[in-house]
Design a protein that fits this description.
Helices cover about 55% and strands about 15% of the residues. It is α+β, with helices and mostly antiparallel strands. Helix 4 packs parallel to helix 5, helix 5 packs antiparallel against helix 6 and helix 7 (about 310-330) runs parallel beside helix 8. The radius of gyration is 49 Å and the shape is rod-shaped. The model is unreliable at about 295-305 (pLDDT under 50). It holds the Pfam family HisKA.
C-alpha cells in the first residue's frame, strides 16, 4: 500500500517540478542571451562611434585595423557598411550582406531603428548572433557597424545553467519526497499498519487484541469497528469452545469415578472387568487432556525423564484388543511392518491409536492397515484405510478443532479426535500428516522424534 501511494505521489511531485522548471529554464536561456547581446551591443556602439568620421572622410584604414584587432582579440568578425550597404571595412573578407540574418538586421539599423533582441540560445541550436548599430551624424544615418558574434560560449553557459537547474530540481524533489511525501504517507497509512499488526496478533492467538478508532477518518473508523467486532466474535467463540470442553470434561469426571468404583468391585471376579477398569482409567486421562486442551492453545513442554517407549511394541499390544473389535464388526485389520523405535514415554499411544482406528472404521473402508516405520530422525505410526479419502483443501484442515469433512457431517462425532491426536503428538515434539496414498483412501501419519540412545 505504501509503495503504491508513493508511486502515485512521487510522479505528481516530479510533474510539478517539471512545470516549475520550464519557466526557469526559459529565464536562464533568455538572461544569458540578453547579457551576451548587451555586451556585444556596447562593442557595436563603440565601432559605430569610431566609424562616423571615416565614413565622412573616406579614410578607412584606421577603421579596418581596429576591426582586425577586435576580431583577433574576441574572435568576433566585425564589418562596417555605408548607407548603400557597401562594405567599407571588415576584419575578414567574403562578407555577404545579402545573408538573411544580416539583411534583416541592416533593414532595421539603416532605417534608424535598433534591431530586436535575438531569440534565446539553447544548447541544441547552432549559428551566430548578428549585432548591429547605426552610424549616425546629426540625426542622419551614415551606415552601420555589424558584429557576427559566435554563440558557442553562450550556449555552453546556458547548458551549465540548465544542468544546475536539473540538479537543483532533483535535490528539491528528493527533499520533498523524504521530508514531506514519506512522512505524509506514513501518517496516512498508520491506521492500516495498526490494523495489520492487530491482524497478526489475532492470527497468533491474541484474540483480545483491539485497534483504536479515535480520531480516524470515518472510513477507517468503520473498518476499525468492523475488525474489533470480528475479533470480539472470535474471542467469544473461543471462550464458548473452551467452556464447552471444560464443562464436558467436568461432567464426565463424576460418572467415570462412579463407574470405576463399581468396576473395581467386579474386577476381582472377572478378567474382563479388569480390562474395562483399564479403559476407565484411560478415559480419565482423556478427560484430563480435554481440560488441558481447553485451557491452552499451545502444547506444554514435555516433562519427566522416563525410559523411552518402544512405539512398535506399544502399538502391537493395543492392536490385540482392536482386532477383536474389528472382527466383531466384520472389518479387516492388517498389522503391517513394525520397526522398533524409541519415543518419549509421555506419548499416549493407546489414545492416539484408538482415535485413528475408530475414525478409520467409521469414515473409511476396509482393509485398515497399521504400521510403524522409521524415517530419518522420526518414528512414523501410520493408519491407512481404503475409503473415499479427502480433497486437497480438507487435507490442510485435518486436526483442527471441531472440523469435520462435508462428507461426514451427518455421521456421529465431535471433530475433536484428530485435534487431540495432534495435541498429543505435539507434546513430545511430533506432528500429524494426512496424505492420499497410491490406490486411494487416506493415510494418517503420526511422526514423533526418534530417541537416539534407545536400544532395540
Amino acid at each position: 500500500m505504501r509503495r503504491r501511494l508513493l508511486q502515485s505521489l512521487v510522479p505528481l511531485v516530479a510533474i510539478l517540478a517539471i512545470v516549475a522548471a520550464v519557466p526557469l529554464a526559459n529565464f536562464i536561456a533568455t538572461n544569458t542571451t540578453r547579457n551576451l547581446f548587451l555586451s556585444r551591443s556596447n562593442d557595436a556602439d563603440w565601432f559605430a562611434t569610431m566609424a562616423e568620421s571615416p565614413l565622412q572622410s573616406g579614410d578607412i584604414a584606421t577603421l579596418r585595423e581596429l576591426a582586425v584587432r577586435y576580431h583577433e582579440l574576441y574572435n568576433t568578425p566585425v564589418f562596417v557598411v555605408d548607407v548603400d550597404r557597401r562594405v567599407v571595412a571588415t576584419s575578414r573578407s567574403g562578407v555577404d550582406v545579402k545573408e538573411p540574418d544580416i539583411e534583416l538586421v541592416l533593414d532595421s539599423t539603416l532605417s534608424g531603428r535598433l534591431p530586436a533582441e535575438p531569440k534565446a540560445l539553447w544548447p541544441w541550436q547552432s549559428g551566430e548572433m548578428v549585432v548591429s548599430r547605426p552610424v549616425v551624424n546629426n540625426g542622419r544615418v551614415l551606415g552601420a557597424s555589424v558584429l557576427r558574434v559566435p554563440t558557442e560560449k553562450g550556449r555552453h553557459d546556458v547548458q551549465n545553467g540548465l544542468l544546475l537547474l536539473l540538479g537543483g530540481l532533483l535535490m528539491a524533489v528528493g527533499a520533498v519526497v523524504i521530508g514531506i511525501v514519506r512522512p505524509v504517507t506514513r501518517w496516512v497509512l498508520r491506521p492500516l499498519n495498526d490494523l495489520d499488526n492487530a491482524t497478526h496478533q489475532v492470527t497468533r492467538g491474541a484474540l483480545d487484541t483491539r485497534v483504536s478508532t479515535d480520531g480516524r477518518a470515518p472510513e477507517l473508523r468503520r473498518l476499525g469497528d468492523s475488525f474489533n467486532s470480528m475479533a470480539l466474535s472470535l474471542h467469544q467463540a473461543r471462550q464458548r469452545e473452551r467452556e464447552f470442553v471444560a464443562d464436558a470434561s467436568h461432567q464426565l469426571r463424576t460418572p467415570l469415578t462412579s463407574a470405576r468404583i463399581h468396576i473395581e468391585g467386579l474386577s476381582r471376579l472377572s478378567p474382563t472387568a479388569r480390562f474395562a477398569l483399564s479403559d476407565i482409567d484411560r478415559l480419565g486421562r482423556i478427560v484430563q487432556r480435554l481440560s488441558r486442551l481447553a485451557g491452552s492453545d499451545r502444547p506444554g513442554d514435555v516433562e519427566g525423564s522416563e525410559a523411552p517407549l518402544d512405539l512398535a511394541q506399544a502399538v502391537k499390544e493395543r492392536l490385540v484388543g482392536w482386532k477383536a473389535v474389528y472382527a466383531a464388526d466384520d472389518l479387516e485389520l492388517i498389522i503391517g511392518e513394525m520397526v522398533p523405535g524409541g519415543v518419549a514415554a509421555e506419548l499416549e499411544v493407546d489414545d492416539i491409536l484408538d482415535v485413528l482406528l475408530d475414525n478409520a472404521s467409521k469414515y473409511g473402508a476396509p482393509p485398515v492397515e497399521v504400521s510403524v516405520t522409521r524415517d530419518g530422525t522420526e518414528v512414523v505410526m501410520s493408519v491407512r484405510d481404503h475409503g473415499l479419502g479427502l480433497g486437497s483443501r480438507d487435507l490442510k484442515k485435518v486436526g483442527e478443532r471441531f472440523w469435520r469433512s462435508a462428507h461426514h457431517r451427518e455421521m456421529p462425532g465431535t471433530g475433536l479426535g484428530l485435534a487431540i491426536v495432534r495435541s498429543e503428538a505435539a507434546r513430545v515434539g511430533g506432528r500429524v500428516v494426512a496424505r492420499p496414498p497410491i490406490g486411494g483412501g487416506l493415510v494418517i501419519e503420526v511422526r514423533v522424534p526418534l530417541i537416539d540412545d534407545y536400544e532395540d
